[in-house]
Task: structure prediction
Amino acid sequence: MTLQMLRCFAAVAESQSFAQAASQLFITQPAITHQIQALEAELGVRLIDRTQRPARLTPCGLSFYNDIADVLNRLSLAVDHVCGSVAFRDTLHIGCQSTIQLRLLPAVYEAYNKRCPDIYISTTELPDIRRRDILSEPLNVAFLTKDCADEQKNVRYIPLFEGEFCCIVPPGHRLADRSSVSMKDFEGEVLIMLDSAHCPPQMSELQTEQRRNCQKSRFYLSSSSLYTVLMAEAGLGIAVMPDFVCPESSVLRRIPYESDLKPEVGLVVNMEEQQKKVLQFIDVAKTVYGL
Result:
């Protein structure tokens, strides 16, 4: 099985036309047909129903396309990354916890780019924050909440800012005019929570308390704070979140939540990290956050 076979098959699957696929790939239509026939022979199944116009995927073809589409997309991104970074002297690999949206991150990137214009900035989302070896990947530095950073091994943590927990509710909600809310106010509400794969320890502690004390409540699960906000805006429920991931919005009210927990965000780097590009990024981030 070759990459060209997969590209030809994907092109036909997406365009539903052998002729259009040939045009997109700058090859002849017979060549497209030959590649797909060879792929079908190797797999031992029919992928495309050629008796229909436009061309349709068979059930096996649809399943196969769904499985390879992500692989081809990742390959395309890898090629774009290499081609886009060749003009730079070096690359700084930055990780960012998927459950946080850093409002000042654009300012950090802008300031770092001005200071180090020859460094290519690569950003990776860290979806599963339960892992304890984040910096064993090709990452130089990562933005994490402090409770997640405490679970990492052999890293140095640099605090950037501390926040507060708040409750987000739509205007008109019975809690919308409150100056603060507490756990007892949530009984009977629909609560939106982060799933276990994306939930930092502090949030997990808070959500466990919610489940234990709100017996009459129903719960939605979300995989990120961004989706939580969208779900709350849609009126599906309310949520408790750190204030630094809750955007100022006319659609939602942000009400302080009574809690002793204080969410904090910082940078983590390897304990022995001394690369100039990393130290400069840390200095820029601290400056932008007023440290």
In short: The CA atoms of residues 167 and 255 lie 5 Å apart.
